[in-house]
Amino acid sequence: MVADLAKGDFEDLQAEGLKPTLEDFDRLNQLALRLEDGAETTPANHPRIGWAGDVPFHEPTAAALMWLHDYAERASRDEETQQCCFFFACAHAKDPSVFEGLENPKQIGKAVKAWLRKTPCTVREMARACHYAVWGFADAVPAVTPMKMEHLRRSGKTAAVQNIERLEKIMGAAAGLTGMSYLDLLSRTPSRLNAMVVSAQIEAGATVSRDMAKAQVDYTCTLDEIRNRLLKERGDGK
Description:
Distance between the termini: 35 Å
Largest sheet: 2 strands, antiparallel
Strand order of the largest sheet: 1-2
Helix content: 55-70%
Mean pLDDT: 75
Strand content: under 5%
Order of helices and strands: HHEEHHHHHHHHH
Oligomer: single chain
Structural class: mainly alpha
């Protein structure tokens, strides 16, 4: 599907004498489709599943993300081990009880290795399945906005820490609006939790525009980033 917004901006860049690539268009188009679709038509109600043969890998839930951040990432600095922990988290994302007790490096290493030994998949198959489960086909990365860069600088926190804090805030809002238990919330994906909050706010008559505003900012900043790069390539930029 081609978004009219991305098509128009791509043609405008060409009209300026710039030479945007097909990769530039694909990135803009994915972000434009997110903007045009809006929060209510995202895959939030249908968490993604990537398949490696007959083995399902799920879109990370709140429980999986919290376990990765709080324990798995600290278990080892080895990139291969962290990747295996990520595969493990996606494979068990729908069952928060699996992560209970897996807190120290020895426990985590033992559980992940035992799972790997009985999983009939190659690393490449698992990586491909998890990539789809996390990103879907729309994996365009928006440009980092100046406001976000300044916010990170002032807070002194990493993006990962801020993402976990935002997840906890969404979980709190979802609990208050839906009455769901904490354990039930852990089995939901962040996109699903956000959709639940948005739906509840709409039903209550509230004006919801934060997600759409963010999508607009992501698109605009990405377009500016691409245009500035093309200007530099042509020799017009600083």
